[in-house]
Amino acid sequence: LQIISKVPLMEITDIISEYPEVYAIVFDGKVYQSIVDLARQRDVSLVVGMGYKEHVSPGNVRVMTMKELV
């Protein structure tokens, strides 16, 4: 895996469109449904955040917290 970009979360939609294949979105905020929806639309396999802002329906996206990675 390679870090392809570090961007503010508000810019993730624009930035992710520039890359044809993104495996994961990792960020230092709480996971919420619209991030998971974006990942699903772009065929991103994994979303990792610091926790959950709300209950999310992940569909085919694996959603984890940083604690689960350790």
Secondary structure elements and pairings:
Layout: H1 12-16, E1 24-26, E2 30-31, H2 33-41, E3 46-49, E4 51-52, E5 62-65, H3 66-69
Describe this structure in words.
- With 70 residues, the chain is of the alpha/beta class.
- 26% of the residues lie in helices and 21% in strands.
- The chain is built from three helices and five strands, in the order αββαβββα.
- It has helices at residues 12-16, 33-41, 66-69; strands spanning 24-26, 30-31, 46-49, 51-52, 62-65.
- The strands form two sheets. It has a three-stranded parallel β-sheet with strand order 1-3-5. The protein has a two-stranded parallel sheet with strand order 2-4.
- It is globular.
- The mean pLDDT is 91.
Count the beta strands. Answer: 5
Main structural class: alpha/beta
β-sheet strand percentage: 15-25%
Order of helices and strands: HEEHEEEH
Overall shape: globular
Roughly how many Å apart are the termini? 17 Å
Radius of gyration: 11 Å
Overall pLDDT confidence: 91
Strand arrangement, largest sheet?
1-3-5
Overview features:
70 residues, alpha/beta, two-stranded parallel sheet
Care to give the gist of this entry?
The protein is α/β, with parallel strands linked by helices and 70 residues long. 26% of the residues lie in helices and 21% in strands. It is globular, with a radius of gyration of 11 Å.
